[in-house]
Amino acid sequence: MKLWRWLVLSVLTGASAMSATVQAFSTDDEKNSMEVFEVSRPSVVFVTNQQLARDPYSFDLVTMPRGSGTGFVWDDKGYIVTNFHVVEGARKITITLQDQSNWPATVVGLAPERDIAVLKIDAPAAKLKALPLGDSGDLRVGRKVLAIGNPFGLDATLTTGVVSALGREIESPNQRKITNVIQTDAAINPGNSGGPLLNSEGKLIGVNTMIYSPSGASAGIGFAIPVNTVKEVVPELIAHGRIVRPVLGIAVAPDQWAQQIGIEGVPILRIEPNSPAAEAGLQGAKRNNWGQISLGDVIVAIEDYPVTNDDQLLSALEHYKPGDKVNVSVVREGKLLTRKVRLIAPQ
What we know:
By secondary structure, the protein is of the alpha+beta class. Among the domains are: 46-127, Thrombin, subunit H; 250-342, Roll (Pdz3 Domain), CATH 2.30.42. It is 21% helix and 37% strand. The protein contains 7 helices and 20 strands. The chain has helices at residues 2-24, 28-40, 84-87, 227-240, 255-260, 276-279, 310-317; strands spanning 44-54, 61-73, 79-82, 92-96, 102-111, 116-120, 144-149, 157-171, 177-184, 196-198, 204-211, 222-226, 250-252, 266-271, 286-287, 293-294, 298-302, 305-306, 325-332, 335-342. The chain has a 6-stranded antiparallel β-barrel with strand order 1-2-3-6-5-4. A 6-stranded antiparallel barrel has the order 7-8-9-12-11-10.
C-alpha cells in the first residue's frame, strides 16, 4: 500500500514538475509573438456589415448580415481603419471591441482604389488604443510578420510568417492597380481582411487585404497594403472623405481605344477651356474636314512616372497635390515634348 502511494505521488510530482518546466520554457521567437499579440490585441476590432434585403415572404425590407471582417483602432478619437471591400454597400456597420462592447459605426471616408475605409465610433478614449505605425520602406524579404484578425468570425486570432515578396501588384475593388503590395505567407483567411500586419516590434506595417487561393482558404499567399500607403490615404479620408487627386483639365480616351489603334500612352481627347492644360498648350484630338479624327497629344509620362494607360496616369497624379507644377511629357506628331502644367483640384 505504501509502495502504491509512493508510485502515485512520484507520478504526480513528476507530471507537475514537467508542466512547470514546459510553461516556463519558450524560445525568444515565441516570447516575441506572445508579447506582440497581447500588446496589440486590444487595438484589433471586429467589423460586421449589414445590408438591406427584401423578405421573400412578406416582401418587406429588412436588415440582413452581409459579411464581416477585421479592423483596427487608428487613434483615440474613434477612427477605425479597415478594407473598403469589408464595408462596401453596407447599410449598417457595427464595431465590436476586444471587451465585447458593440458600437455603431459611421463611414468617414472610402478609397476603393486603395481598398481602404475609415469608420468612426463614439467610444470613450479609454477604450481606444491605437497601434504604433511602422515604416514599410524598411521591410526586407524574410522579415517576421504577425497578422491579427477575426477569421470565420472567431475571436482575435494570431498567425505568423515572413515577408515573402515586396512590390507586388493587385487589383482593387474598382479595378485600379494597387502597387508596392506586401506578400506574406502568414495565414490570411476570410475574415482577416482589414486587420493589421505587424512587425516583431508590434508596429503596423500593412493592412491585410486578400489571399490568392482557388479554394478561398489560406494557401500561403496573402497580401497586405503597405503602411506607408495607409499613412497617406487615411488622413485624406478623414479630412475629405475620399482621395483628393489633382487634375490637368483634360478628357482622355478609353484604354481600349488606345490599344485598338496601337498607342502606348494616354491620348488626350479634349482640353477643358481655361484649364491648366490649355494654359500649357496641350492639344486634344480634332476632326478634319472629312470628319476623321486627328490624333492630338499622347501623354507618356508625368515627371519620372511612365504613363501607358489611364490607371497609371491617375496613380502618377496621386503623388501630387493641387497647386503643384509638374512636367507632362507628350508625343505630338511623332515628337516628344514636355510641358509644365499647374495641377488644380477637381471641380
